[in-house]
Amino acid sequence: MFFENYSTELLQSAIHIPLFILLRWITILVVKKYSKKYDRAKHRTRRLIRYVNFTSISIALIGLVLIWSGQFKDLGLMLSSVFAVIGIGFFAQWSILSNITSGIIMFFTFPYKLGDYIKIQDKDFPCEGIIDEIKLFHTIIKSGENEIITYPNSMMLQKGVTIVKSRTP
Known about the structure:
- It is a single chain.
- By secondary structure, this protein is an alpha+beta fold.
- The chain has six helices and five strands.
- A five-stranded antiparallel beta sheet has the order 4-3-2-1-5.
- Strand 2 (127-134) and strand 3 (138-142) form a beta hairpin.
- Helix 2 runs antiparallel to helix 3 (42-69) and helix 4 packs across helix 5.
- The longest helix has 31 residues, at 7-37.
């Protein structure tokens, strides 16, 4: 009885779930291949793969809700409520979103690597040192005086950065 009543939803779900698993797998392969080709740190790659997993699971769940509820207006109401709460939170802390976006952009286009000695051209806070870690929100720089400096990723993209000495020849 259940299979007869919900045969369309079951068929759509049987197509939807493997499709998203395949898309997730392809995306992860592309990230790993890019990481290997451009010599990105393994922990940065793992972190980006976690974001890919979270995003793909979220999209798959939204798709399943659409398949099983059949009412787009119900999903629209739910998503508008969720995005309203998230929007208020990001409006209060807009820099979080810009730093996350910058962190992901820096994974693919960052010309510097861990161990490079850099100088940030900032008139208010000139900074130089060795890149110790590149995280989602900020980059950790170790100065010559053994100071640990956390510099926001969004600022790394906005300011001029000079590579004084690269760790690779």
